[in-house]
C-alpha cells in the first residue's frame, strides 16, 4: 500500500498507542477511530491484553455499535465485537502453563494468568503483577499454586518482574518451551507465553483471510516490542513517537506520541488525507 491509498483495515495496539499514560482514550482519538469505522475501514484492536482488559475500550470506541474486532492475548483470541462471536482461538498446552509457573518460582519473578473475569497470581501485590492488573483494570485473585489453580485452557500466561531478573527466565523458557509455545517480551518487564505460532501478525493474517482484505491494505499502529511483527506485516506501519527504537525501525511513519493523540493524527493523515473531519 502506498501512502496515497486509503487502508481497508486499521490495527491498533492499546497501551502506549491508543491509550495515554492514564489508560484513557481521548475524545480526539475516539472520534477519529469511530469516523474510520463509519467510513468502512475495518477497526481491529490488537493487544497483548486479555479480553477482560479490552472490553471497556472496545465499548468506549463504540465497536459494539459500529462493528470491529478485538484481537486479544497477542492474537490467541479474536472476537467480532458487535456479535461477540469468537472467530478464532488458540490455547496453551498444560505443559507450557506448568513450565512458566515453575520458571517464575525458580528465577524469583512472578507468573500470572487470566480467565474471563480477571487475573490470578500467587502474589497480586508484586509490583509488576500490579502494573499488569492496572493496565487491564482487572480484578486480581491470590492463589497458593498458580499452576494448580489454572484448571482452564488459558490463551496465554505471563512471567513478570524486573528486567534484569527476567533475562535468565526468558532464556530458560525460550529453550524449555521450544516447539511447544512462543516466548517473547512485550515489554522489558513482561514475558508473554502464547500458543505456538500465535503473534499479532499471524492472527491478523487469519482475520484478513476471513474479511477479504490483504495485509498490504492494513495500517497498523503500535509502540511495543510485541508490535514489531504486526508492523512488519502491514502495508503501512505507524509507530508512536514514544515507541521503542526497535519498534520505530519497522515504521513507515512516526506519529506523535500517545500523549499527543498520535493515533488520531495517523488516521487523519492516511485515512482521511489530512482532513481532521470527514
UniProtKB/TrEMBL annotation:
GO molecular function, a single term: phosphatase activity
Signal peptide positions on this chain: none
Gene3D superfamilies (UniProt xref): 3.30.1240.10, HAD superfamily/HAD-like (3.40.50.1000)
Tree of life domain: Bacteria
Family matches, as Pfam families: Hydrolase_3 (PF08282)
One of the record's GO cellular component terms: cytosol
PANTHER family per UniProt: HAD SUPERFAMILY HYDROLASE-LIKE, TYPE 3, PHOSPHOSERINE PHOSPHATASE
NCBIfam families: Cof-subfamily, HAD-SF-IIB
Protein's name according to its UniProt entry: HAD family phosphatase
Organism lineage string: Bacteria, Bacillati, Actinomycetota, Coriobacteriia, Eggerthellales
